[in-house]
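Dock beta-D-glucopyranose; give full complex structure.
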Amino acid sequence: MTDTDVPLSPADLLARLTLEEKASLLDGSDFWHTQPVERLGVPALMVTDGPHGLRKQSGEGDHLGLNASVPATCFPPAAGLASSWDVELLQRVGEALGRETRAEKVSVLLGPGVNMKRSPLCGRNFEYFSEDPVLAGDLAAALVAGVQSQGVGTSLKHFAANNQETQRMTISVDVDERTLREIYLTAFERVVTKAQPWTVMCSYNRINGVYASEDPWLLTRVLREEWGFDGLVVSDWGAVNVREDGVRAGLDLEMPSSSGAGTQRILDAVEAGTLSIETLDAAVLNVLNLVEKSRAALADPGTFDVDAHHALAREAATRSAVLLKNEQDVLPLAPTGGTVAVVGEFARTPRYQGAGSSQVNPTRLDDALSALRAQFHGAREVVFAAGYEPENEDANAELVAEAVATSAAAEVVVLFLGLPASYESEGYDREHTNLPPVQLDLLDRVVAANPNVVVVLANGSVVNLEPWQHSVKAILEGWLGGQAGGGAIADLLSGVANPSGRLAETIPVNYRDNPTVGNFPGEQGHVRYGEGLLIGYRWYDTRSLPVAAAFGHGLSYTTFAYSGLRLAAGEDGLDVHVTITNSGDVAGSEVVQVYVSDTEASVARPEQELKGFSRVTLEPGESREVVVTLDERAFSFWHSTARRWVVEGGEFGIRVGASSRDIRLATTVELPGDGVVTPLALDSEAGEWLAHPVAGDRVRGALAGTPWEEMLFDPHNGQMMRAIPLVRLTRFPGFPIAETELPGLLADAS
Ligand code: BGC
């Protein structure tokens, strides 16, 4: 019963709620619903996973993907979508997800997850976008904008630094602030500032010892005060530690229901005076605002077109696949010709999504084998041999023999390999990056039987390509393609579609080259991000390490020429103009990548960093100018002492290319910098005092003409002298500045 027909505004509701009702609103009512307050017309909202499809459980709820859910379109998970580097596509996929969410009367889709792929072993990498925060952030922002354009919300997760599954509920991520800011928070920041997700989900882990769910710096200072987030913060399912500490830190809603325990703790804390009513009200208001935003969609859920969404899922999978290798143009397969042997169980029984909370019950499921048969119907014979059983670690001799015979008799072999579902899932990390031995053995046998082998991969996180990649003609990385992935693979193999995906993560030659080796997954409750900023290609490129496939790499059935690189001041920053020409015979899409390097910085910086990209589709012979804007942040680093973003004056390299290892054009730009002044302290080194724009002159003046001047600027010993804190030099006999003068100098300088 409500006492009014028109819903009350959040402020009016807040004024009428009792203390008990307020506290109850900060808790779930079951696995997937918030609490209602019926007397005031506050409905219980439903939130469900995501993120690459809706996982709305119809019966018994759980958050681990155990119980069935209503059919929904299963788009490619983020590992695939990210490889499209296609902001416009992500927006459309988001809109479709939003329509399905709305049609099911769900108010918030629990995703996307924008955690960085720090280690290739993270069990949830299939759900995450990239090892690069700009790419992850911009793609996820488009997805969020798309979903929310349909009047339903998203939950940006897992905030923050949830980069592994081992001990995910308790591990302390030990990481310096600069690394956090430049790598692990950036994707979140981009999504929040560009798309304002309705909710943000805090992660399970701790950061430098503090649970994300009770970290005021993370949840309030950075998220709300610095980035301007105005939505609701929800706990990951079971991430609450001490409930009232969470509320104080900025964690509004506990999910799933704490069965009243959280509510009671909040009430007790209010009564004890350790939680203020103002803090409680602020959290309640965030819940009420979410209810308010959700009302329109709940009143008019609408429907969606299952076929159209399936077609979009196919388009998305097509754009997500990455052609890693294509020797002698073995692909696309000619429309007519000899027998095509399709080998591998994954061609018939696709592996198309990961396991755990994101597992979607698809509306239908395409397999590549049927799609290829349909594609070549009447023109080429397509024969099949399963070759292996995905979850069986022992080879099945009969299947292998059949696969070898089938391969030997064919003109070309398309061999479907990939990770069994049990290899990658939420809840645990991978043990290695190799394909199963059974599949690798089969590969060797097939290659020996037929030199024309095309490998199609199905995996949510990178697999080791060495040394076998040299024995096959082509590799198409299909990722986990979602429910229409099979059709997409057939389109790409047959040339109906031109591959256009690009790697959103580096494939190392060997897992041991990865910078986290030795610091993953941590020990005794701590994981140390010792590689700092040098995650993914930032590491491989800074170290000049060979890689199996570079970040940003991906081939096409056509070629692209780059020309006319020029820089111009634009409205929002520095515009990088470059002309791309389709120099081949078929239409195709190129992803233009802009990397910035700052090799003369006063702090260590990665060799180069992706700061912008643009996807362009061109007919054969067509040229188009692409413009990528670099804003101030593209040149900044996080200054650990000044504790702010800083652009340091000097020269920056602008590199434009088709991957981090395929730079086609480069130029430089001189920037004035924003004149950051490192704050001085009494014990700052003499060199720091001398470099200070105000104090420096005063110190130099006092030294002038004394032997100390000579010593401090001596070409040999000066460096050692300047590294002595000024305060200690003042106590040396004969030093021309007295210790007592320093506080005054310091005050004048600040
Ligand atoms: C996962 C979240 C998910 C939640 C609800 C958690 O275990 O980490 O990503 O949204 O469960 O299912």
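Observed: The pocket of beta-D-glucopyranose is lined by residues 49, 63, 110, 157, 236-237, 357 (CB under 6 Å).
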